[in-house]
Design goal:
single chain, three-stranded antiparallel beta sheet, hpI Integrase, Chain A
Length: 349
């Protein structure tokens, strides 16, 4: 497969050009888009493909150029969804110039061409959307018959193998004669509870990293379960995450919060801070051995899997496996498949 770099579709104009700089300010201030630079770079790549000399709005006069660009992306192996994201960014770029600049008064003809091109982009986006849907169906179909994919039981192997050690540590915390844990024991508890959220509850690492103390304290109870709602995370614009913990899991999390987490925070407070403005972990539920918010929950999961000597399974693979397994079940079984995986259960594929 030809690489995108060889096809010249990765080159871009300088982000300091006024045309791109104004667009960046618009995304940052009006849209409050924390990753605005990524969208600016996406637009910049197409503007370079359309005219390597200088970024401008003249690309709206050449629709064939967009077809060429999408064709080059297809040669490079881009999925329809990725190409659709390029279209989405271009649309926002044009919408900015149509609604937030003086283009209509300064150049009526160019304004008209931009409006027509925006409709052209919408049509192209619709075609790509249909292609993307087909790709997703094909991918899911392939996963159903992928024998190399781990089973749900294998995904949870690290939790099964490490539970005995966790229980010993938790019992040690109940012993009044043992008031503190070693650093190694504290880290093990931290990594294990992170793994519960990522593996058993199929959450992205960003959810673990973003979970706040306030959200833990404000958890809701329903029957024997407790529900923690995490609001500020990477996909927060789309939904609030709810983590449904069993009674046993809640007890472990409570002991971590009351007895393990304070030790992690205290360890940092005994040290001199190199950076006074560095963010403390006081507001975050999960904190590192330095008392700071954890920043790489995926890496913590790998370390735990290595310690327990089990195959490494990423959060993405786990979500895919559980989704595939759930699709094989009828509705009454789907809730069970997301909460417990009994080795002898008939619901395990």
């Amino acid at each position: 497969m030809v690489k995108a770099k060889d096809l010249g579709i990765l080159k871009k104009h300088s982000a300091d050009h006024p045309l791109l700089k104004r667009f960046a300010d618009y995304l940052k201030n009006d849209y409050e888009n924390a990753k605005y630079q990524q969208e600016v770079d996406t637009v910049s790549r197409y503007l370079y493909f359309a005219d390597p000399t200088e970024p401008s709005l003249k690309f709206v006069n050449d629709r064939e150029k967009l077809r060429d660009f999408l064709g080059q992306q297809a040669k490079a192996g881009y999925k329809a969804q990725t190409s659709g994201n390029y279209i989405k960014c271009l649309k926002r770029f044009l919408e900015f110039h149509l609604t937030r600049t003086g283009l209509r008064q300064d150049d009526r003809e160019l304004y008209k061409q931009c409006t027509l091109y925006l409709s052209f982009l919408t049509s192209s986006q619709s075609v790509l959307s249909k292609q993307a849907s087909k790709e997703i169906v094909q991918k899911r179909h392939a996963l159903l018959f992928d024998k190399s994919q781990p089973t749900p039981r294998e995904c949870l192997a690290v939790l099964d193998k490490g539970e005995g050690d966790l229980v010993k540590i938790m019992n040690q915390l109940d012993d009044s004669s043992s008031s503190s844990l070693s650093r190694t024991e504290c880290i093990f508890v931290l990594y294990y509870l992170e793994a519960i959220v990522i593996l058993r509850h199929c959450q992205r690492p960003c959810v673990v990293q973003s979970m706040k103390v306030k959200e833990w304290l404000e958890r809701k109870h329903a029957d024997d379960d407790s529900i923690v709602f995490v609001k500020d995370h990477k996909t927060a614009a789309h939904f609030v995450v709810s983590i449904v913990l069993s009674k046993k899991e809640e007890a472990w999390f409570e002991k971590y919060y009351n007895k393990v987490r304070p030790q992690l925070l205290a360890g940092e407070r005994k040290r001199k801070r190199d950076e006074q403005d560095e963010k403390d972990g006081d507001d975050f539920f999960f904190v590192s051995s330095r008392g700071k918010p954890i920043y790489n929950a995926a890496g913590d999961l790998i370390k735990l899997q290595q310690k327990c000597n089990v195959p490494q399974v990423s959060s993405q693979v786990v979500r895919r496996v559980f989704e595939t397994a759930a699709n094989r079940l009828d509705d009454p079984q789907k809730k069970a498949v997301l909460t417990t995986w009994d080795e002898d259960s008939k619901i395990v594929p």
